[in-house]
Design a protein that fits this description.
Length: about 375
Amino acid sequence: MAEEMKPQYGFLLLADISGYTAFLAKSELDHAHGIISDLMDLITGHLKPMFSIVKLEGDAVFAYASADSVQRKEHILEAIEATYVAFRNRIQAVHRRTTCGCKACGSIPTLDLKFVLHAGSYVKRMMAGTPDLVGTDVTIVHRLLKNSVSGGTGWHAYVLLTNTAREEIALPAAHLHHSIEEYEHLDPVETFSFDLQERFNEIVSERRILAKVADPDLTFDILVHAPAPVVWEWLNDPDKRGITDEATITVQTRVNGRIGEGATFHCAHGKSVAMEEVVEWKPFSSFAFEHHESFATLLFVFDLVPEGEKVRVSVRIKLNPRARFLQPFSKPIARLMAKAIRMQRQFDRFRQYAEEDWNRRLSVPSTPS
Ligand SMILES: [Zn+2]
């Protein structure tokens, strides 16, 4: 007998490997299955810290996250993009490494990944000991796997959002591909999509910022026992940063509705207000921002490198005093400043809160609610 539970509201996500059917049809099956199962593991591994995985459905991963488990809703899109980058990097690496001449191994580069994201209600049910989700919105997200986006745009990899998901994330409709999808027995579904290939190119583009911190004035190295999406959030969510930095941080401008290069923040410490501008944004691996004080600009460059179940955060800071005569003294000034605002303590707090947050999430079994 099925055990019924209360309806919940949240994000419903399908990550679907495209090119899969053609890939299997013309492939040596044992190699093809090995490649696909490796990719499915990679996708679930990257989605897991934020999403609960419902199940694997052939060439797709079905996952969900309750709405109140995601504070900064845009984090959902960053998780999707980071997963896509990992997927593409894996495909390139496997293709480069293989010496096998079989059809499966030869056609690895034709595989791609698309995401369908909906926000709606679902009921969690135990079916013969296995949890599953049911409800009209669950049906909708599955129907949307067959859609007009590739035909209308030529995109192979994309994120398709229903209008409900788009509104939940507060993503502006401008710059998105709009379409109406129609299915039997369902009301027409309004959708908005964007190209993942373009996001991939932006995220893997050359890191010009590194040249500017080749000789940093300050460095910090923090090993955090939490996965990258959680660490990223404690470094970037304005509310969470506000807690660790004892400041009030607010988003001033977004770029096409997103945090990314060119987005700005206000950072208020007591009476002083500083403006911050994002100058690099590669979720969940690196980001950088310029922090403008009246006497100087500080460039912060963050790198997140996974080490097993931990993430090493390396911070490089370059101080650029406005007064020219102070510029040769950027190192001692930066050290004094770090001491004055107790920067080490801010990073200690960040590590502590990120780890506590992750431990809390781990202790809630399988369903974040
Ligand atoms: Zn092969």
